TrEMBL record:
PANTHER family: PREPHENATE DEHYDROGENASE, PREPHENATE DEHYDROGENASE [NADP(+)]. GO terms for molecular function: NAD+ binding; prephenate dehydrogenase (NAD+) activity; prephenate dehydrogenase (NADP+) activity. This is Prephenate dehydrogenase. It is an enzyme of class 1 (oxidoreductase). It comes from Streptomyces triticagri.
Length: 361
């Protein structure tokens, strides 16, 4: 692939363009808002000038509701040899393309499983997709050349290709992306009118749960409008769990011991099912999650502290498998939680103490 057009210069489209330009592909940029395309071009994502001849590939990076019309117009203009979209929903746009009579042999639906809470070209990065799954949904009609072009894009963006059926993809993203986003927003909404004294108690747990609630609501309306059925089904199941949990918690307030025991059993059931589901979330490098030990170290909020603690861990011969930072409320300090192999935890703890670090249990 030597040339490409990216139609839609938001976060995903501009990130794709940056990655392709970085690998030597000539990229042309287009957007319904010319100023946004110019911004992406100024960032080094390509040129906002139209190509003189059909390019190798057109990447349609617009909201799901606009994929079919945008792609249909690009095909009618003979923009490229092949076409792919990067929308987060796959079955709806494909059905709309069929209704419009578009030649689907030159098209493949794809979805890079990457994003950020921020949107727009200024949030784009060339490494956004590195190591991330990138779903491809070919059909029996998909031309081999188009599939190969899509695989080349995935490789150039250093993502990991995953082939799925379009309907199966939509059910999967409803489970692992769309439904969790709504739940995060619902939890965050409880904070809107909460007392300031309560909000000041926010710790890492509430930050983890509400992080994705910071995303652009307009973007998510587009996404959810394209996949409402599977998301509604999942939320219905969650609503059942919520109602049963509410009833169990009410039972814990009862003066009847049998009811209290039943309530405790109900709460324990949902917590244990949560444990069983959480361990299925892939761990490091997409492998089965490992059981790590956490070494918590108190650090000051000063330049160089993180670099020094990582260097000291290296001197101890310990590999840091993962890391989290929990900031102390109202203090210029925080806890760095270093996740390591269980056998390495005592070694790291002793070594860091020798080097003057304050270890917290």
């Amino acid at each position: 692939m030597r040339t490409a057009v990216v139609i839609g210069t938001g976060l995903i489209g501009t990130s794709v363009a940056l990655a392709l330009v970085g690998r030597g592909v000539t990229v042309h940029l287009a957007d319904h808002d010319p100023e946004q395309a110019r911004t992406a071009a100024a960032l080094g994502a390509g040129t906002d000038a139209a190509p003189d001849a059909p390019v190798d590939l057109a990447v349609i990076a617009v909201p799901p509701a606009h994929v079919a019309t945008t792609l249909s117009a690009a095909v009618a203009a003979d923009t490229a040899r092949g076409y792919l979209d990067v929308a987060s929903v796959k079955s709806g746009p494909r059905r709309e393309l069929e209704e419009l009579g578009v030649d689907l042999s030159r098209y493949i639906g794809t979805h890079p499983m990457a994003g950020r809470e921020r949107s727009g070209p200024l949030a784009a990065t060339a490494d956004l997709f590195e190591g991330r799954p990138w779903v491809l949904t070919p059909t029996r009609d998909t031309d081999t050349e188009v599939l190969n072009l899509a695989l080349e894009v995935v490789a150039l963006c250093r993502a990991v290709p995953v082939v799925m059926d379009a309907d199966a993809h939509d059910r999967a993203v409803a489970l692992v992306s769309h439904m969790p986003h709504l739940l995060s927003s619902m939890v965050a909404a409880r904070l809107e009118h909460a007392e300031d004294t309560a909000v000041r108690l926010c710790g890492q747990g509430i930050r983890d749960v509400t992080r994705i609630a910071a995303s652009d609501p307009r973007m998510w309306i587009d996404i959810l409008s394209a996949n409402p059925g599977p998301v509604a089904d999942l939320l219905g199941a969650v609503a059942t769990d919520l109602q049963e949990t509410v009833e169990s918690l009410r039972a814990l307030q009862s003066s009847d011991e049998a009811k209290r025991l039943g309530g405790a059993a109900g709460v324990e059931d949902v917590l244990r099912r949560g444990n069983a589901g959480q361990v299925r979330v892939p761990g490091k490098h997409g492998t089965a999650p490992a059981a790590y030990e956490t070494v918590a170290v108190l650090i000051d909020d000063q330049p160089g502290q993180l670099a020094r603690i990582f260097a000291d861990a290296g001197l101890a011969g310990v590999n840091i498998e993962d890391v989290r930072i929990e900031h102390a409320t109202g203090q210029q300090a925080g806890l760095v939680q270093l996740m390591v192999e269980p056998k390495a935890a005592p070694v790291l703890t002793a070594s860091l103490r020798e080097r003057g670090w304050s270890i917290r249990q």
